[in-house]
Amino acid sequence: MKKKTGAYLSLLSVTLGAVPNCLHVLKATLLQGVTLSLTRQIASIILGVAVIVILFSGQVDQESLAGSHSPNSNVRSTDPKNQYVIETKNLVKKYFLGSNVINAVNGIDLKIRKGEFISIMGPSGSGKSTLLNLLGALDKPTSGKVFIDGVDISQLDDKGLAKLRNEKVGFVFQAYNLIARSTVKRNMELPSLVKRCSKEERMRKIEELLSIVGLKDKMYRKPTTLSGGEQQRVAIARALMNDPDIILADEPTGNVDSKTGCMIMNFFRRLNREKGATVIVVTHDPEVARITDRVIYIRDGRIFREEHFKEASA
After folding, report:
1. N or C, which end of the chain is more exposed by having fewer CB within 10 Å?
2. pTM for this one?
3. Which of 181, 245, 178, 234 is nearest to 206 (CA)?
4. What is the rounded distance in angstroms from the CA atom of residue 132 to the CA atom of residue 116?
């Protein structure tokens, strides 16, 4: 086995809401576990990125490191002609607080076709965001199944889940989750670093997406110098860096004014109509929901009603 001293990339999967005490280097013979004082800060500010890229230097078994990127064998739904990009079966998520049990998601069966534009509504604490996290493989269910493109994601290990998230899902969060000390360009680069594309291709993609959201001239600015609406647009552009089939957005208009919110939702609709992306938005705003094709109403962790807007397709 060859060993090489130098810099290398270690890929770390992050689960929404979890703040790890230790970052582990995958398949590294020297660095089995590295405790970092900035771990909590890193985890909190990059929470919206499915894969974090951390730069270390030292000795690593190159053969083992290469093996760490091998995909899992996909465990697919029994239907070879599965037509749903996302499907859940009796999905349950419970949280245990001492002797108390919170049923955040309580037996949800949901089928989402490729290219749908869906909103999820419900009161605070109804399970909307928890459901979104489960649909995007950011959290694991207590019981039940989630299938993404026919793959039973409960059968994937952490590396397989990270690969699936990075290749198929783009995440947009209310808090933006941009790294304050980095430029817009650097924030945009993070999701694409694991794909090993050339610098030229990465730069072309960044310029293209920032042009679409009207922020190409802000490429070298820090997020803290941007308005809330501009930061959200950067977050959306970042979510599209790897051309995901699925876009999950948690209250994307919650921190912006109504005009900016309308612009953001119209941008999602454009992605859905022109690119065929499946877009799922959690919102509390009925006007935002009306822009989508289907509204799923959640209460006490259950779907209690659905509404379809035919005019949204016009």
Report:
1. C
2. 0.71
3. 234
4. 15
